[in-house]
Structure formats: structure tokens, C-alpha cells
Write a structure and sequence with these properties.
Elements (H helix, E strand, L loop, with lengths): L1 H28 L3 H15 L4 E7 L5 E6 L13 E3 L4 H8 L3 E3 L10 H7 L4 E9 L2 E10 L7 H44 L5 H12 L7 E8 L2 E8 L5 H4 L2 E3 L4 H8 L3 E3 L9 H8 L4 E9 L2 E10 L7 H59 L6 H33 L5 E3 L1 H18 L3 E5 L7 E3 L1 H18 L5 E9 L2 E9 L8 H5 L13 H16 L4 E7 L2 E9 L2 H9 L1 E4 L4 E4 L1 E7 L5 E6 L6 E5 L7
Parallel strand pairs: 14-16
Antiparallel strand pairs: 1-2, 1-6, 2-3, 4-5, 5-6, 7-8, 7-12, 8-9, 10-11, 11-12, 13-15, 16-17, 17-19, 18-19, 20-21, 22-23, 23-24
Helix pairs in contact: 1-2, 1-5, 2-5, 5-6, 5-10, 10-11, 11-15, 12-13, 13-15
Amino acid sequence: MKNTENDRDLRAMSEQSELTDRLARLLSSSSSTEEICEGAAGELKRFMSVDWAAIALIDKAGESAHLSPLSRRISSAWEPGTSISLTGSPVAWVGEEKKALVEPDLGQASRFWTGVSFLRQGVKCTAYMPLFSRGKVFGGLLLGSHHTNAYGARELRLLKFAASQLALFLENESVRREMEETTERLTAIENLTKLISCDQDVQKAVGMFAEQLKKTVPLDYLSIAFVEGQQARVLATNTPLKGEIAEQRMYRLDDAPLGWVATHKKTSLNPDFSKEMQYAVDELFLKAGLRSGICLPLFSGDEVIGALQLCSTQPAVYGEKEQHFLEELSSTIAMPVRNIYLAALVRESDVFEQAIIHQLATHLTPIIASSDILAKEFGEEAQTDQARLIQNILKSAKDLNSTLSRLLELARVRVTAAEEQIGIIDLKELLEDVARRALPIIGGRRQALLLELPPLLPPARANALSLHQMLLSLLSTVSGLAVEKDILTLAGTTSHSDLIVEIRFPAPNFQFEERDSFLHVFERHEPDRQRYPELALQLTTARRFIERQGGKFLIERKSPEMIVISFSLPMATEHSQRKSKMQGYCVKCRAEREMKDAKSTTMKNGKPAIRGVCPVCGTEMFRIIGASSTL
């Protein structure tokens, strides 16, 4: 009897050892989850009856379990679907009790509502084994057999070893999948954020944004709207559907979910318009064939300034996962979209201003013509009151016409600003071409142009055509202020992560204190408006252009007779990042310099840094950088 028990124990230990070794080899040699699960199912079938098998993983909310088949060659169909409610299920039981459970004969009795589903599939006996992670049950290994009493003490002992080995792998795999999903989600949000502001044509940008978003969430209608008092203004709409919803531009806040979203500062969701119409606009959606919708707030600080609205022709498509993704997306794109909205408002204002100026100039033309005719009839030298009055009217009308012309030019500059395409340009090549084209103009005035450029100049980010035209116009204008034999200089250099362009010219009569008024030409006082009108217009338009490129515009006096017009342009990203990493502050020179022999290192506090020496005095320098930065 004792020998029989010893033989049984030895056989059990041998089976456990064999199953453990087989699973260990499987886990170390397989490269995919599917391959491991297939192999594990095959190994279990060597030791016990397995006609049904699945892995159940409990979701983070603890409300449901997600089922996946252990093997494609073993049945795992579950009547309710791939997710089941935890309430009253065997997965909930093993999670609470933290131990295995066997139902030897489902035809006689079952503790759970799932027993009926098993019997329909021909399963008569089931075993449920918990999967542990750090003492907590995160799922279960579920097996079923067509035979009653298929799982006894021997089978449970083997299943316990199998479950412990599979649990570690499944937990790691779950973490890996979660990280992959997070990376994919963040990448998708980053790409979508780039698309929403990739084109100055708002409708075009939103169209590309919607097409990309369709790859992640169901989408048949998308709109972006902003709060304007008690109204909502639709910035852009993208939908293949026709009718009023595609053409709507303004609506009352109370007629759409945006009103509720703005008040409650949270997402509004309607899973099925046909079952519940919450707002007047829902009826339009339903008539257009849309069934479900979600409206997400766009925040500026704590205030809801607008909303991103999505709808689908299918009901109940925006679940918890989709809502979480869209809320993260809406918070990321809120500021870029707000800037697009403000730019659209400015553009509308500029077009309106341009139209007003044009109308004023149109009505002013006959006044100038009539006054000119009357002045000629009286004669320019006439001293009568009527003649002086007519000359006064004519002069004032011409001054007003000149002012309107400059205003119109500025309005046109602001309108075309939205159409500028900023790209990476070879600044050195551009400056050389500007100098080449300006030389005949400057030479014709018997002046000289000096070009000062380093051997290498990093690329810049700007609109090449507009920059070229601006520099050529400025050189031509300042040349008109200089006299014969004067030397004008066009120079380019670098400073930290910016590129600096300078135009130096002699102008002893230029009043330095007028600098600010020249940069804001139409904010000047009346006496200043007659001074250098062409230069004033050039400087004003140039300043606005440079600021749109992300740079700064300055006028400085370098000497009693030398004026310098300078501006900065952002360096192309890859160059500015590399250069900024190698910049450090020299305590001896009391200046920022590019470090010599710069190398990556780690500070005593664990923070990564760049360490080098000052190229001038040799003093040791360092710069703390972000953890992800490398030299």
C-alpha cells in the first residue's frame, strides 16, 4: 500500500516536472502570444481532457472580463460574446475566493449563469483556475470537457503549475500591449495635432484631420464650433452628407450640445438619436442618417471656448475607450484650433477693413479730380479766398488718398499673411541672391553694397518668396536715404537658436527716437506722418512679416551716422536643437558660448547634462538637459 502511494507521488511529481519543463521551453522559445497559447493548449491536452479553453482577463474597472481563446484548434465560443459581466460569473468567484473551482457535472448543477451556455456547447465539466499577479487575481484559465468528472485532484495540481507559469507571461504581455496602445494613442494624437494646423485653409486642414481620425474612431460627421455669446459659430465641418448640417454656420447654444458642454465643462454623449433627442440639432442629425454623437469641450484655461463634435451613422459607437481617446485629443488640439479661430476672425476683420478703405478711396477719386479742375481754372498763383479754399481741399484730399493707399497696402499684407507657407530655406543662398539683384539699383546710385556672411549658415524657417521681396524692397528704400559713395551692408550670422540678418546704412539725419513710431507707422502723431512715408511703410510691413515667422524686428543706432535694421529668424529645428544642446554659460567670460569638446555626462543628482570647456578661456562649462536628449 505504501509502495503504491509512493509510486503515485513519484508519478505525480514526474508529470508536474514534465509539464513545467515543457511550458518553460515553450515560453523561452516562442516569439508570439498566439504561439505560446497554442503550445500551452497542446501540452495540457497531453495530460487531461480539454474540449473547451479560454483565458479571461478582468478589466481595470472590475466590471467585466474579456475572453480570448487559448487555441484556435479548441472551441472557446461564448454565447454572450467576447466580454462577459463579472457579476455571477466563475471569473468573479475565483477572483474573490482566490482558489480553483471545479463543476464536475453541469447537467446536475451549476453555481453560475454561464452553466447554460456551456451545456449548449456540449461542455459537461468545467475547471476554473485563478491567474495571480502580486497576490491579486487579474484573470482566470477556464477549461471545459465533454465528459463529466474530467478534472480531479491530479488535473487541478497540474493546472496550478500551468497557470502560475502562464500568469507571469500574460501579465508581461498585458503590460506590453498597454504600452503599445499608449504609444499608438499618443502618436495618433501627435499626428492629428499636426494635421489640424498644417494648412492655412481651415476647411482643408480639418478635412485631412477628419480623414486621419477615421482610422481610429467611427466618424461620418465632424465639426468644430466656438462660443460667441449666446450663439455658436461653426469654424469648419467635414462630412460626406448633404443638407443643412453640412451648411450650418451659426446656431443657438441651447439648440446644440455645445451649450450644455460649455456650462457643465464635460463631454456630452448621445448613443442613439432615434431613442432620445436631447437638442434641436439632434433632429437634423437623425434626418441626415446619423445615429450617435459625442461633443467634447475645447478649453482655454478653465473656460470652455468651443467644442469638437463627432457623429456616426451607427448607434452606440462611442464607448469608454473612444471617449477617453477623444477627450485626450480635444485637450491637445484646443490651443492650435483656438489660434486658427482667432486668425479666421482677424482675416475677416482685415477683409472688411480692406473693403472699407477701397470704398473710401473710390468716393475720394471724384473729389480729387473735381478739385484739381477747379484749381486749374483759378490758377495755382491765385490768392482769392475761393482759390485758397480749393487748394486746401485738393491738398487734404491728396493726403487722405496717400494715407488710404498705405492703409490698403497694410490691409493686403495682413490678408495675405494667412496664405504664407513657412518652410526650411537656405538663408545664405537667399541673401546672396538678394545682394545680386539689389546691386544694380544701389550701383546706379553710385553706392556700394557689402555682403557679410560666414562660410556656413544654418537653414532657417520662413516664407522664402516673401522674405526675398521684403529684403529687396528694404535695400532699395534705405539706398534712397543714403548719398553717393555710401556703403550699405547686408549681413547674416547666428545667435543661439536664431539666425540674425542685418541691413546697415549711413543715415545721420535719421532720428533714433522715432524708431518706435516707424515700426508702428499708423500710430504716429500727425507731424510724423509726412516723414519718410515709403520707409515707414516698408518697416511696418517688414516688422509684421518677421513676427509672423516667429522672429523679432529691431532698429538700432550703432554709431552717430550708422543705422542698423536687424531681425531674427528661427533656425530649422534639427539645427537649433543640436546647437542649443552644446551652448553653455562661461562664468569667467560671463557669456554664453558653444562648448568645446562637449560630451554627454550625468550630474551627481542623476540629471543628464552636456559637459565641455569654454573655447575662449578654457573654463569648464556644463548644461543640464532633458533626460531624452543626446549629443
